[in-house]
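# nightly structure sweep
# worker-07 picked up a monomer target from the shared queue
# config: single-sequence mode, recycle default, output format = structure tokens
# input follows
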Amino acid sequence: MVIVWLIIAVLLVWTVLSMFGGLISVVYFLLIGGIAGWLAGTFMRGRGFGVLKNILVGIVGAFVGGILFRLAGFRSAGVLASLIIATVGAVVFLSVVRSIRSAI
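# output follows
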């Protein structure tokens, strides 16, 4: 399971680097991802997952939230909006993972 998380992280970081092209963007993305993952873990479990999983859940959540908010016609403008979008996406991601696990 850890290998899957690492593969997802590498692919997402590579995608961010190719899209935005800078180390500062990656640091910003990881920071927002970590905070969003921690918030989503707090909402869903009552506590976070640990630093690495918080970042990974937040990064996946940023992509999920970005897709959902764009489909709804919203755009992010600033750090707070990015954090909200990533957190909502992470909560949706965790909900889907939880429902898949319970179905299996």
